[in-house]
Amino acid sequence: MERKHYVLLYVADTPASAAFYERLLQRRPVENSPTFALFPMADGLMLGLWKKDGVEPTPQGSPGASEFCVSLPSDAEVDAFHARWKQLGVKVAQAPMRMDFGYTAVALDPDGHRLRAFCPAG
User: Fold this and answer.
1) Per-residue pLDDT, 1
2) In sequence order, what are the residues at sequence separation of 6 or more whose Cβ sits closer than 8 angstroms to the Cβ of residue 47?
3) Helix 75-88 crosses helix 14-25 at what angle (to 10 degrees)?
4) Closest by alpha carbon to 69, among 103, 28, 100, 35?
5) What is the spatial distance between Cα 32 and Cα 15, in angstroms, rounded to a whole number?
6) pLDDT digits (tens, 9 = 90+) for 52-93
7) pTM to 2 decimals?
8) Nearest C-alpha neighbor of 90 from the set 72, 107, 114, 75
9) Are 26 and 85 in contact (CB under 8 A)?
10) Angstrom distance (rounded) from CA 27 to CA 34
11) Domain 67-120, CATH 3.40.50.300 — does that match?
12) Domain definitions of the chain by residue range
């Protein structure tokens, strides 16, 4: 059996968040219920959206305290992600800019989770 790894984001409205990520990722969830949705990413990584009211133990953190990041091979692809976010009406927290680790941009999902696209420096 192929090993999978999961990143789970706690969300207020699972169907709304699932619709947001379906548009953003241009793929359908492989699991979708009123309390949980699951999207396959790359290399065995799965992105789960879990309705925060049902999580046990109760989460202590809040959205925006961490990031879901995607590493891209070029600055132009970071710019393309940024352009797509704007086209979809996604809230952009940071327009593309160069930082010490590379070229990067940040968007926010409906719950305020940070979505970072970056091309590593060097």
Assistant:
1) 67
2) 6, 7, 9, 21, 25, 38, 39, 41, 68
3) 130
4) 103
5) 8
6) 998 999 988 888 888 999 999 999 999 999 999 999 999 999
7) 0.89
8) 107
9) no
10) 18
11) no
12) 5-54, 67-120
